[in-house]
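Standup, Tuesday
Yesterday: got the pipeline producing structure tokens again.
Today: sanity-check two examples.
Blockers: none.

Example 1:
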Amino acid sequence: MRSLEPASRFAALTLSAITMSCLLFGTHAHGSEILSFQEGADGYTGTLDTWITNDTTTASQGAATTVAVRRRGGAGNQRVGLIRFDNIFGLGSGQIDPSLDSTDIVSATLKLYFTAVDTSKTVTVNLANQTWNESSTTSSLGLTDANPSLMLGTPVTSIDMSDKSPNSWIEIDVTDNVRSWLTGGNNHGWGLWETVASGSSPQQFASSEYTSDTLFRPILEVTIIPEPASLALMGLGGLLVLSRSRPRQAV
């Protein structure tokens, strides 16, 4: 029987490799990769966080080690926490490949380590609706009547704090947000506030400047599906190893 020409043999191997990669890795979780973004970890820099208030409208809180979230009765001491992760898309190591489809993002989770909680409250998480940085204040942002809640855009979720404890992690599903940013949406990050105006003690979570233990800094964890070509190359490599290890038949 006549053997295949080199080009035909390579095409056959490639097709087999693609099939093998699908069998080995599947189309979703079996071939997924987890990317973690945390300030100072694995060389990542790009976390921005601060809180804005209506009682000190020109004071920046970007260097604070915790981010405050509070909604009180009356006019004063309202605090909206802001957080954003920049530099998450790109072709560098550990970044999200901008050529991926939005469906290639399996999940995205915002993880915040709360150092103080008020169990009588519910915290609302919204998309922030305008550009800001760690030097921003209610005054510099031009918020009407210095109202920090005007930074809050589309609701993402709400967190019932009644069963939460100080010094613990809270995880927030932000998959749809990261998918939207991948396809061109504006990444202004998130704003956190309380749904009820009462009480006096703010919720607080560790910021990207937190120094007591840097492992408690905010984390954005994104699970993606690698490009199919990468999986095919894995399968092709496996086939080549197998073909080289197979003994030759006697003529």
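Example 2:
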Amino acid sequence: MVSSPALPSPAAPARLAHIRETVRLLGQRCVAYHPKLVQLTGRVTAGLMLSQSLYWTKQLHLAGRLDGWFWKSARQWQEETGLSRREQDTARSTLKALGVWQEKRQGMPARLWYRVDLGALGRLLAPGGAFHIWDWRNEHEVLRLLGRPMLFYRILSSLTGSATSAVLLSRLFSEERTQLRAGAPGGTSWRRHAFGILRAQTGLTRHELESARGRLRQRDILHEKRAAYRIGGGALKASVEWRLDYAVLIARLRKTAENHRVQGAPACKTAPGSALEAAPLSSMAESGKPIIRKPDNQKAENRLIEFPESARLDFHNPPDRVGALRNACLAESGNPPYTGLTTFTPTTPEDGDARTARVCATPGASGGGGREEPE
């Protein structure tokens, strides 16, 4: 006899409507977060930064740039991952200590460029000589190395004030969303925590998990209660059950989205186990045509593309415009208008001498401040 699937409770449609609204407010800024990288690095921040770096490395590979170098500012890292400047520095130090992270500073103005050493990372993920070469085209092998990712919603870092809390909330939301889609009971039902599985799915340590749960409870987003259920033999076993308060979550998301001006952004369409949708390489493109606002500068022959306003500065004095040698760093560095200090008087051929006579006349000296003529 085949049993029919359980029908959703009457409150399930309202729960699904809340989830759809939450998905809309979460927006498209999500990261394919690999818990296996957290276990490798020992830090959520390092695993999150490395996960996002691998995404950009793959996009560069698909774009034909096989060297793997890319640059990002601290603000761009924060916008994409939610990591603060201190968390970024800590994550970079951890990754460099592992030998999977390379940095260099170059360009004018100087930018900090990053590169993931895929060879070193592959050897750490597959010890014992099981790793040969990192091939993005072999999705099965990449999935074996990195493990199945989960979606990390960047906006939750701003909402909770913590990367670990955002990781936990992202996982709990994805779990409930999946269960409701599969027809599991919804409404006001509580779900049982499986802490061992949850730590494996998020990469959080026991201390990080307890801290993240406490932070979410303080914000009234997560509700928990102790319960007991019967196991084989009729014995009772204590457990902790949880549920998300979507009314509070949606209200906080709307406020956070309004602050970040991302309300109404399209939902992230990436499912776990697949690659993130291609995004524009905003921090990769180098501008070939600089923005030069001054008309005189637009006609300069040689322009430094790194400095939009440094092609040729405006010279306000007429002698400066025709100066043969000008220092481009000084706006008024043409022929200096010296007055009353030095006078140059060239001789003529009729004088019988091709020499140049120079007479210095200093005001206030003996004999008056006038100008002497050459003999």
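Quick observation on example 2: The mean pLDDT is 75. The first strand starts at residue 30 and ends at 33.
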